[in-house]
Amino acid sequence: MVWYADFLYQAQSWDRARRVVAKVEWHKWELFPRVGFIVLNLSRPTKRVVRLQLPVLACNTGNFLRQAVLHGAVRHWTLTTLREKWIKIGAKVVRHARQVIFQIAEVAVPRKLFAASCGQLSG
Question: How far apart are CA 120 and CA 72, in angstroms?
Fold first, then answer.
């Protein structure tokens, strides 16, 4: 079962109230419902707003990767290039006693570039 609702809410740090769309999903055999909130200024119907959530999240994640994480040499990449070279790339997962290794084809992203970007993420 899925319910949609919207209401106005104003956090202490906000200068005015904003529209919040809520989606509540209650799946069979789950103890608690899944609840999600989206704060926005669109006047679209609640169901249509929730359908926009996934593309917006994907775009924001791609922009975060490009600006905050990726090494300077690839910051100019488009979101399509990021998706093709970083996200949709195949990898082999090798498990050892104390570590897990992701073996990625170096054709898509060179080893030094990958290491530099991972260093940005952890650093």
Answer: 10
What contacts 120, CB < 8 A, 6 or more positions away? 68, 69, 70, 71
21 class by beta-carbon count within 10 Å (0-12 exposed, 13-18 middle, 19+ buried): buried
**Per-domain residue ranges for the chain?**
70-123
Closest CA to 41 of 13, 11, 8: 8
3-state helix, strand, coil split of the chain in percent (to 5) is 40, 25, 35
CA distance 75 to 11: 34
Which residues neighbour 91 within 8 Å (Cβ) at sequence distance 6 or greater? Answer: 102, 103, 104
The tens digit of pLDDT for each residue in 44-82 reads: 888 887 777 767 777 777 777 777 766 677 777 777 777
